[in-house]
Amino acid sequence: MVEFTGLCQTADREGFVVVFPNGSGRVAKSRSWNAGDIQLHAARQNIDDVRFVNCLLDDLIPHLLVDAGRVYAVGMSNGGLFSFRLAAEISPRIAAVGSVACAAVDFELKPSLPIPIIHFHGTDDLFVPFFGGAGGQGLHPTEFKSVPETISFWAKHNGCEFPAAQDALPDAGDGTRIQLHLFTGGKNGTEVHLYTIVGGGHTWPGHQSNHAFLGPTTMQIDANELMWRFFQRFRRTH
Q: Roughly what angle, to the nearest 10 degrees, separates helices 49-64 and 78-89?
């Protein structure tokens, strides 16, 4: 994920700390997080990844002099679902979530606080289908909810206004188009932003993938820049 996302370069330029902890698994390239929904290695072994992140934050915040109110969870696919789980189970510690190419399997999460969410998803994602169902290319046969259903869950939890404000970004000629849905007016000023990448695959927007089987990558937007701009607006005060 270090190379896949390019987040280190953004962190160096903007002056924030980015941490890439390892999930668990027997094969380094297919490690997983216990997101609770997808039965990959971490979930099958019932690994307490939420407790691990809690301990990691306890250690890193004082050592790196991090503002404890500005901790953000970011993830893609299984990691994105795990970020949602962190937002639900340790809500007071997570100021906002940035997620890419993930969708809910069920809606059993019960966040204790409203949580700002910024999400990116391609309509041609063959691993986590935008419109729901089983991803034909996934590591595990999982029936996903649709992305609109997933985002609506968080927007309703936050008490955001419906319907969402919509905007279409100009086509830059790379074969993808960007649609933006903004759910605003949530509790404590929270918002939910959905960037739909029409024609996009299971990829990280703005950072070209070397794996053709993941599908097209949009270069019209940069997920890192948009996440950081979004995160800067939110800080936990309790």
A: 80
